[in-house]
Amino acid sequence: MLLEMLQSLPQVLIDGLALGAVYAVVALGYTMVYGILQLINFAHGEIFMTGAFIGTTFFILLMGMGWVSSVPQIFVLILVLIVTACLTGLLGMGIERVAYRPLRNAPRLIPLITAIGISFILQDVIRFIAELSSGNYIVTGPSLFTDQMTISFSSLSSIFNDASFKTSFLIVLVTAFILMISLDYFINRTKWGTAMRAVALDRETASLMSINVNKTISITFFIGSALGGATGVLFAVQYGTIDPFIGFILGMKAFIAAVLGGIGNIRGAMLGGILLGLLEMFASANLTLLTGGIFGAEYKDVFAFSILILVLIFKPEGLLGKPTAEKV
Amino acid sequence: MKETLAKFLQYKWSQVILFTVFVAVSSAALFFSQKSVTAFLLLLSSLLILHYIKLKNVTKWIIALGLLFILIPFASSGGPAFQSYMDVATMVGIYVSMALGLNIVVGMAGLLDLGFVAFFAVGAYSYSIFATPQAANFMPFGTYPLGGESFWIFLIIGGVVAAIAGVLIGIPVLRVKGDYLAIVTLGFGEIIRILFNNADKPVNITGGAMGIASVTPPEIFGIPLIFPNQFYFVTLVILLFTIFTVLRLERSKLGRSWKAVRENEIAAQAMGIPLVKTKLLAFALGASFSGMMGVVFAAKQAFIDPTSFTLLESFTILVMVVLGGMGSVPGVILGAAVITILNLQVLTELATWVNQLSFGGVISIPEALSPAKMQKFIFGALLVAFALYRPKGLIPAKNKIFDEKKLKESSTHKDFKTTDQKKIQS
């Protein structure tokens, strides 16, 4: 049994890293908003999904133009990433302005309910637009970066199998890491990043230190949503087919990743995302083997949620978070 | 003109007369027309009007019972659409009961539960597994399916099993604060659905994605209940029991502790309210109503599969509670009725109407915009609009107001007063 698990390990690692990178960047959006507003932005998964759709639309449009095929695909990708990130960032800002800002002093249940409402509206509007323009809400983008690559782990040691992947895997991984590193730099080194940390720490004192709180929160939403939208594009490139309902469960899992790493903690979200992606891939590959055929790969969502519950019971502050006492 | 009308409506008897006329007209319209959804809805809305009439509570209840038990079934029996009306009315009853259960958890105790349909599923499966040959796959003793009389016992069993599920979910969840709770319950809701969806191997318990078909219909005095109009009365009795229990619970010590926990957990704990016990009871009681209705649902549909218990269903019940007014019993009843009728009648009617229009070439509305598919958008818009502009819902919850003076008089000066009065009288 162990031998079989080891054999499939290289492929599991590669698939898990791709999934984990997606989780990690989406989790950043959750953790930033939670850190600054103590609000679970349920609509974040939907912003990710919107990003995937906007990106795919742009790809299809650009690929339709003749001159684009002479440009290297990577430039097209970068262009699409930037445009999508800006659009979804604005969308996130708009959502904050309409649905969360008026409720900042309401009981905490109320903004959660608007967040669910917004996510429903986004899902249905996207479904409507997709169905209207192409007749079906499941959309397949143009296939990009499809060259197969193989790493021969078997030459390393005979117990491993070879792992193969598409070029898109490398692109997803590299882009996700660039995004995460630049965000880390932004939060820790720039003026706006400092302002964001200050507002997260204590909103009222921050406003006394001449920080424009509303603007800072808007920027937080812009950056979080831009990251989410960009990841949506990466997801579309990696997996090809998208539908309006991918955002909800993926958003939940990204939230689990954020909790696993310690919610409110940027580096924690990155760690949690990668870890959750790896664990989930491992589970879906090996659950059948481990339980002797009682549980199969269809239980991988159950697995992710049980991680969340275990973390909340035994280490509610997460891997990298600091425990906080509730004040009266 | 307007003023005289307003003045006229001030009087109790004028209200009663107008109400009677309204009920008579709408029920006559329903009885004599072949199929009129409008008349049916008007007759149902008379219950809402009744809520606002200036009458004693007891009188209102008697009138409401008369309407529900006699007039509505009788008036809708006129046309060929009798069973479909009764079907809708039964579904309204089921959803009202569930929404009242969720109202305990969300509205009174302030715990946002996003996986509430799981308890409904537990109730539904607990009856349908034992009322079909399904149970023979894993039960070592007994012969299955059980007879139709077992339905009445399963009403209780379904409630209890759902309550146990509620406690089991509650225990890990209670260490978690408000917004995490939403995610964890959502996760549990999904887990239970996935479990039911996949529990057909290695031992076939739930039939997996195929579901369970031909559930034994319930029997009473040897008569099997098959038609919606029979289930209507079953649902109605359970619903009345639910409403009565919820109203009593709301004013009890437990109900007041729920509200205290909702307003401020730490303060409530400082006042000596046991947090864990209070929250667990909220979960268990809320779940048990849902489980009971799950049993009714399974018996009525005679077929269940995991697609009836998706996340959307949980959110639908949440929309009912938010729309009606969190914590308000009449509000939640109204909210549940409105959403269920919107779902089952108004949207489908609109969809067929739009279809006819585009078929006749009057206007062409793309298939994607068909009203039956707009459910999510409507729910989302309702949630946002109500949370932003009317967070207390259609009928806001009222707390019983106590007059401080009266309370003091009745508690401390009681003895003196009675003796004083006696002296004066003598």
Describe, in short, the structure shown.
The complex is a heterodimer of chains A (328) and B (426). With 328 residues, chain A is mainly alpha-helical. Chain A contains eleven helices and four strands.
Question: What do these coordinates show?
Answer:
The complex is a heterodimer of chains A (328) and B (426). With 328 residues, chain A is mostly helical. Chain A has a single domain (2-147, 164-314), classed as ABC transporter involved in vitamin B12 uptake, BtuC (Orthogonal Bundle). Chain A contains 11 helices and 4 strands. Chain A is globular and about 65 Å long. Chain A starts with a helix and ends in a 14-residue tail after the last helix. In chain A, 48% of the residues are buried. The model of chain A has no long low-confidence stretch (mean pLDDT 84). With 426 residues, chain B is an all-alpha fold. Chain B folds into 2 domains: 1-80, no CATH class; 86-419, no CATH class. Chain B has 17 helices and 2 strands. Chain B has a two-stranded antiparallel ribbon. The longest helix of chain B is centred in the last third of the chain and has 32 residues, at 329-360. Chain B is globular, with a radius of gyration of 24 Å. At the A-B interface, helix 4, helix 9 and helix 11 of A face helix 8, helix 13 and helix 15 of B.
